[in-house]
Prior knowledge:
The chain has helices spanning 22-46, 49-66, 76-87, 122-135, 181-186, 205-211, 221-234, 301-305; strands at 92-93, 105-106, 113-116, 162-165, 168-173, 243-251, 257-260, 270-277, 281-284, 287-290, 296-299, 309-311, 318-325.
Amino acid sequence: RPKCESVTGDQRHPYIDTDIDHSTTFGILYHLDTLTTQMLRRVVKHLDAVYLKNRLVYTFLDSMLLSGGHPDELSPEVKAFRQEELFGPKIHTWDVRALPIGVATEHPDMPGLWMMPSVLSSLEIDHIHDFLAHVTRANSVQGENGVPIRSGGLENKFLEWFEYHPGRWMLPLQPHPEINEDIARLVLSDMQSTNNTDPMTWPNLKTLWDSAPETSHARYAEQIIKIQETVTRLVPDVGDEPCLFIQMQRLERGSRVGKHFDDFRKGGKIISTAVLQGENIIRVGHIQFKVLPGDVYALARNARYDVKHEVLPDPDDRLSATIRFGNTVS
């Protein structure tokens, strides 16, 4: 522990400790440098042109709905939006990072809101990204770069992304082991989010797994199967309910999925979402919580039918897998 050689004995300043361990000093400086780097990265993300564009668009739309116009001249939809935004209940934050791993925890004040932290590892998430790149032929988008608009998938193995809304892309997959033909015909055959493609032709996880060699990225279908089986096993609301279908979704940074109810006829009784990219704030009624890649959450009962839910914007792109259970059409 070197001391200041120019100061000895009683000449040392009484408030300066020259016996500080240099390794401790280095640790403090390293920690400060790490924090500074993280802050700079976050600032850079918030200055990203795509993020700023989408934030401005959604902020403008919100301000248009919340301002101007006499109440008697407003449509019922705009009136309802204003009522929710201006006079809704106070938002409460749920600390989901404190929840146990390996079980589904239900929110004490929101029946049917389930959280399962860290279901997937970072390696398993990377495998799903590779799997999607395989199925969509290098993340191609229908209607772009010579890719035609599809009426269905190819060989139950391939289907490119479909741009449902600006900055929001969808890819439907059959559940494991296969889609129910009656559900496909009666419920899922005319969905705008899948561009009305034939559900019987959607990529099939079992077909991709069975037909792929050991080295193929198609084998990573097992990671999506794991999500479906984990939700079925851990969430009591699922029980024996059939899995309707799986919807992969990409959301561009700065965009949001506004408050909504999922379609009561086609959306299933239980909606479960696995986060595969991005750190978003999710709001379900007056409850909000932050999700990280690998987390899975589910909505059933009150959380599904009585309150709206939304995904708030984030400076990172979002990738998710939404798995729906429970047929609502006889």
